[in-house]
Design goal:
Layout (H helix, E strand, L loop, with lengths): L9 H6 L3 E2 L10 E8 L4 E10 L2 E6 L2 E4 L5 E4 L3 E9 L2 E6 L3 E4 L2 E12 L2 E11 L4 E8 H6 L2 H4 L6 H24 L6 E2 L15 H9 L3 E5 L23 E2 L9 H5 L22 E6 L1 H7 L7 E10 L5 E9 L5 E7 H8 L9 E5 L5 E6 L7 E2 H10 L3 H8 L3 E7 L1
Parallel strand pairs: 2-23, 3-13, 15-22
Antiparallel strand pairs: 1-2, 3-12, 4-7, 4-10, 5-6, 5-10, 7-8, 8-9, 10-11, 11-12, 14-23, 16-21, 17-18, 18-19, 20-21
Helix pairs in contact: 4-5, 4-9, 4-10
The protein binds zinc ion.
The site of zinc ion has 8 residues, from helix 9.
Amino acid sequence: MKPFFKGRRILPVFFGAIAVFLCGPVSALAILSVPNISSNTPKIRVLLNESIAWVEVGGWDLDARTSRPIKSRLRSNGRVSWRFSCSSGRVRLVSPHTQVFEGPLEVSSPSGAFLWGSKMIRESLVIHPAKSGCSVVNVLDIEKYLDGVVNGEFSAKWNSEAVAAQVIAARSYALYQSKQARLNKAFFDVESTTKDQVYLGVEGEETRASQVVSKTRGVVLASALDERGARIRAFPSGDLVPIKAFYHSTCGGKTDSPEDVWGQPQIGVRGGVRCLHCGSSPRFRWDVKLSNLEIDRLFSSFGKGKVRSIEALSRFPSGRVRQVKVGFLDGAGKFSSTVLNGSQFRSILGVERLRSTFFDVSGSATRDWIFQGRGNGHGVGMCQWGAKEMGAEGYNAEQILTHYYPQAYLVKVWK
Ligand SMILES: [Zn+2]
């Protein structure tokens, strides 16, 4: 197999002596270990739902406790079902008897699992009194969390090297978010939806997924460059910060940068990576037709009249639309226009309809509007279809990852 880009093993040149290799289905990865590697796996706090009226938990020998502002505890003997509500900073047990708890209430079971409604919960569930109702956060081992992410964000059926690449990216993303959330004193680290990573819970776990998670245990992506873009020459010590390893379904040929898409650079993630591997994605090319009536409805909240023109005003180097100019004509015959950024325009049309900002537009106010585009998703970081195909073509997880994150290297941060 021919290398398809140069220089992807720069860090082993610096730290070759401490590179370690995994074996098995995820093979030959050059992975660095941090000094004094931790034996403890961190916990991640996953927001499962917000502002819900009731929280029902059930199981054996349940234990519920608050630690702040006041310590209190409730324990059951044998099987129990508890129903809670929240208001005014308090969690209230309303069934089978009443009891009031000040502050967040953490529920767990000595068996390690219990039910929240009909959903199996690992480790513990923290009920936070929200402004309205309760917010529910699952606190669990980050590796077990990843078991439930594999089939939510990708598929354990893919080639194991492609799955390993995805798992490492998902672990990096989760760890990055967790560190940021703790700095910001947020009450959760990640959401369980596409806002962060789709977590299917225990129901989404399966053996193949768990095997790959286990083979890549503790491995994350870290930047080989510092904040000023200089190559890191000393091995990171202390609290290593993983990269925020964004990924998306299909890039359509070229990835984009976080600064182009969200206006903020991100250490270790850059755009402009050419991808020759996602051509088999059903979203590699797409087109969508919208009637002028539909477009007028979507832009009615602007209060400027009917849409007369839509023009891609400028593009990023990747080819994605930077700005869109929408022209209007009101009932009094007055023309006006609005300039939106590509992402805003995409959200107005619907992200499920306009699959990316990598599009051309044609049509007119008297005909349909036709959008012809490429790719699916924001285009930043790893292209999942590209990774899937690279795995099928024989590339290993490290090759896949360093292709899409060329400024990153793999490092094992816990045993
Ligand atoms: Zn791609």
